[in-house]
Amino acid sequence: MTTTSSRPVRPRRSVLYLPANNGRALDKLPGLSCDSVVFDLEDSIAPGAKDAARETLRGFFSDGRAAALPAGMEKVIRINPLASPWGGEDLLAARACRPDAILVPKVDAPEDILAVEDALAQTDAPAALRLWAMIETPRGVMNAGLIARMAQTDGARLDCFVTGTNDLLKETGVAPLPGRPWLSSWLMQIVLVARAYGLDVLDGVYNDFRDETGLMRECADGQAMGFDGKTLIHPAQIAPANQTFGIAEDQLAQARVIAEAFALPENQGRGVISLDGKMVERLHLEMAERLIEKAARIAARQGEGQTT
């Protein structure tokens, strides 16, 4: 069984979608401060442009531009569903590009992830290549627990859930009201199962990239729900997401206190300790260590000239 601590530790405050065929946007990536970028071969690419987008992406990864991106910027490729006319070619291209992860869209059931894992195994893809799953359909929400459970199987690649709120709204007919009152229960269900099986989980996009006030409000809403970060559609949304989903100083200080307490000789090997009158378990140590490492990665990026 894999454990929560075996997953890569990465800040995912801001995750920018970028059409794979947008050459100008690709060239601007080195100057951006998003934690992750999703090179999109799916929704943002018209059917007649899929092949060209795939070739543009291959060129970006093969000519050195992808390797020149800021250290720590996570590179993810969103493919089309395997059952689509483009999914198979997308997966082969993505595997050849060697990104950090592949984002699988419209995941309805565990079998959708298994199919991608099997295909990657047949091509001897490196174990470091992770999978993200988009939960964006009614069936996906209903089966989210079964899908997330796959992260606990031997050799699992599943690393992160991404909510597709636009597709959920479209498929259910739910009104897109401020505050997302009718979506909230589904979003909380996705967060709950992600946490149950040690996955990161990302909030959906905010469509009006000119409305910074609305974006900040929705980021705060998502952060309060427990999301690790927000998916974005425009570079102007990066700084607000980084700010809202950043690690607070008091959180980091408390994490360090927990780590230092468990490191004391008298606490070595203990599963539970008393700290400031409260019982603290080893699972809290694992959470603290991940938060400390995530904070260090954020600080390293800022030290390289990236903005928050």
TrEMBL record:
Coiled-coil spans in chain: none
Entry keyword annotation includes DNA damage: no
Binding site for substrate: 78, 136
Domain of life of the native organism: Bacteria
Record keywords: Lyase, Magnesium, Metal-binding
Binding-site list for Mg(2+): 136, 167
InterPro entries: Aldolase/citrate-lyase_domain (IPR005000), Citrate_lyase_beta/mcl1/mcl2 (IPR011206), Pyrv/PenolPyrv_kinase-like_dom (IPR015813), Pyrv_kinase-like_dom_sf (IPR040442)
Molecular functions per Gene Ontology: lyase activity; magnesium ion binding
Annotated ranges, domain HpcH/HpaI aldolase/citrate lyase: 13-235
One of the Pfam families matching this protein, by short name: HpcH_HpaI
Cofactor needs: Mg(2+)
This protein's record includes keyword Metal-binding: yes
GO terms, biological process: oxaloacetate metabolic process
Family designation: Belongs to the HpcH/HpaI aldolase family.
PANTHER family recorded: CITRATE LYASE SUBUNIT BETA, LYASE BETA SUBUNIT, PUTATIVE (AFU_ORTHOLOGUE AFUA_4G13030)-RELATED
Name listed for the protein in its UniProt record: Citrate lyase subunit beta/citryl-CoA lyase
Taxonomic source organism: Hoeflea halophila
